[in-house]
Amino acid sequence: MSYERDAIARMSGYTPGEQPARTVIAKLNTNENPYPPCAAVMDALRGIDGHALRRYPSAMADGFRAEAARLHGLTPDHIIATNGGDELLRLAITTFLEPGGPLGIAEPGYSLYPVLAAVNDSPLVRVPLADDWSTPDGIADRWNAAGARLAMLVNPHAPSGRLTPAAEIAAIARAFDGVLLLDEAYVDFIDPARGYDSIPLVRDLPNVLLLRTMSKGYSLAGLRYAYGIGAPDLVAPMLTKSKDSYNVDAVAQVLATASLKHRDEAARTWAAVRVERERLRAALVERGFDAPPSETNFLLAAVPGGNARAVYRALADSGIYVRWFDQDRLRDKLRISIGTPEENDALLAALDAIK
Ligand SMILES: *Cc1c(COP(=O)(O)O)cnc(C)c1O
C-alpha cells in the first residue's frame, strides 16, 4: 500500500537535465554559465570559519538582502532570498495559491511549473504562446476567467530565448487579478542595448514578483541561491510566514553576497556569452538550422530535416550534451547552452561529422 497523498501518487516528477558522471567534451544541456564564479567568491569560500557554521545563519539573509536592495535601488523589504529559484516558485504557490487552486502558465515554459502545480493539486490554465513565442493578447483574461490567483511567465523566455518588453509584462500584470511571478532566470544575458528593466514594475505594481537566480548569470548553480523582488506587502508573507525558518544556509549567504558585490566580474562572462551566442547562432544558421535570436545563454535551434532526437543522440555519443524535449513544438529542435569558444567549436565540429 502507498502512503502518498493522491495528488503525489498521480503526478510524475521533474526530469532534470543529465549531469553526466563521465567527463564530457561539452556539457551544453542545462544552461550553466561556462565560466567559473569570480575570484572574490572563491576567496570568500576559503575565508569561512567554523563559527559561521556552528551558529544558525541569518534567518532572513539580512546581509544579502541589503546588498541586493542596494544593487536594484530598492529597500531590503522588497527582497527575499531562497534556496534556488525553484524554492521561490514553490513558496509563491504555497503563499498565493489555495491548495487545488488553478495556476496560470504559458506553454511551452519551464517544465518545473506543472510539477509544482501537481504537488499543490492545482490544475493548470495553459495558454499557448504564439508561433513566434510571443505572449498572446488576452492571456491575463484567460487566467482570470479560470480563477487563477497566481501565474508564472518566464522572461526572457525558456526555451526560446525570446524577450518580451517590460511594458508588455506590465500590461499583463495590470490585467491580471492575481500575482504574476516573472521568472527572470536568464535576465543577466540580455543585451544591455535592449534597455530591459523590470525593476520599475515592482515599484509600480503590487502583484509582480520577480525571480532572479545566482545559478546562471553568477555561475553558482551548485550553490542553490536565488532571490525574489516584489512590493514589500507581497514579499512579507513569504519572508515572515511561509518560508522555512533558515531557508538559505550560512555559506550560501556569504558567497551570494560576495557575488553580487562583484557583479562587474560576472558581467564580463555575460558579455563573452553574448559574443559566442551570436557566433554560434550564425554558424548554426549557415548549417541549415532555424535558430532565432536569443537574449539568454542558450539557443533553440530547429534541426534541418527535423530529426532532432537523432542529432541529440549522435551528439551525446560524441561527448556533446545538449537538451532535447519530447514535447509538442519542441521535438524538432535542440536547446543548446552557450559554452566557451572551445566547447562551441567542438559542437560545430561534431555536427559537421554527423550524417
Ligand atoms: C534555471 C531556472 C530557474 C531557477 O533555477 P535555480 O537553479 O533553482 O535557481 C528558474 N526558471 C527557469 C526557467 C530556469 O531555467
Give a description of the structure.
With 355 residues, this protein is an alpha/beta fold. It folds into two domains: 18-37 and 264-353, Aspartate Aminotransferase, domain 1 (Alpha-Beta Complex), CATH 3.90.1150; 39-261, Aspartate Aminotransferase, domain 2 (3-Layer(aba) Sandwich), CATH 3.40.640. The chain has 14 helices and eleven strands. The strands form three sheets. It has a seven-stranded mixed sheet with strand order 2-8-7-6-5-3-4, with helices on both faces. Strands 1-10 form a two-stranded parallel sheet. The mean pLDDT is 97. The site of pyridoxal-5'-phosphate has 14 residues, from helix 5.
Small molecules in complex? pyridoxal-5'-phosphate
User: Would you count the extended β strands for me?
Assistant: 11
Distance between the amino and carboxyl termini: 50 Å
Mean pLDDT: 97
- Structural class of the secondary structure composition? alpha/beta
Helix content: 40-55%
- Alpha carbon gyration radius: 20 Å
SSE pattern, N- to C-terminal: HEHHHEHEHEHEHEHEEHHHEHEEH
- The CATH architecture of the largest domain is 3-Layer(aba) Sandwich
Task: Summarize the biggest pleated sheet.
Answer: 7 strands, mixed
CATH superfamily of the largest domain: Type I PLP-dependent aspartate aminotransferase-like (Major domain)
**CATH fold annotation of the largest domain:** Aspartate Aminotransferase, domain 2
Strand content: 5-15%
Domain count, please report it: 2
